[in-house]
C-alpha cells in the first residue's frame, strides 16, 4: 500500500497544480481576452459590418429602383388605359358621325328623289295639259270642219225644223265619236 498510496498522492498533487488558477494568470487571461475582442472587433467585425452595410445599400438601391420601375410601369399602364379609353371614345364618335352623315345623305337622297318625282309629275301634268289642249284644238278644228260642212249643207238646202234637229243630232254623234 505504500507505493500505491504514494503514487496516488503525487498524481493528485500534480493534477491540483495544473488545475489551480493564480491571480496573475487570471489577470493575464482577462487582458488577453480584451485584446482579442478588440482585435476581432477591429479587423474582423468592422470589415464584415462594412461589407454587410454595402450589401444593404445595394439591396436598398435595387429595391428603390424596382419601386421606381413599378411606379413608371403603373404610370405607363394608366397612360395606356387612358389612351385606350380615348381610342374607344374616338371610335364611338367616328361611328356616330358616320351614322349621322349616312342619315343626312339618305335624307338628301330621299329629298332629291321626291323632288325628281315632283318634277316628273309636273312634266307629266304639263304633257297631259298640252295633249289635252292639242286634243281640244283638234276637236275644235274638226268641229269647225263639221260646222262648215253643215253650213254648206244648210246653204244647199233649205232647212226646216226637223232637218235642223237631224243636223244637230248628226253633229253631236260625230263629235261624240
Textual characterization of the structure:
This protein has 177 residues and is mostly helical. It has one domain (27-176). Helices cover 95% and strands 0% of the residues. It contains three helices and no strands. The protein has helices at residues 2-19, 23-156, 161-176. The chain starts with a helix and ends with a helix. The mean pLDDT is 82.
Keywords:
single chain; 177 residues; mainly alpha; 3 helices; 95% helix; 0% strand; rod-shaped
Q: In a few lines, what is going on in this structure?
A:
This protein has helices at residues 2-19, 23-156, 161-176.
Q: Count up the helices.
A: 3
| Percent of residues in β-strands | under 5%
Oligomer: single chain
Mean pLDDT over the residues: 82
Which sequence of SSEs, written as H and E, runs from N to C?
HHH
Percent range of helical residues: over 70%
Q: Tally of extended strands?
A: 0
Largest sheet: none
Question: Could you say which overall geometry the principal axes of the C-alpha atoms support?
Answer: rod-shaped
N/C terminus separation: 186 Å
Low-confidence stretches: none
Provide the number of structural domains.
1
Radius of gyration: 68 Å
What structural class do the secondary elements suggest?
Answer: mainly alpha
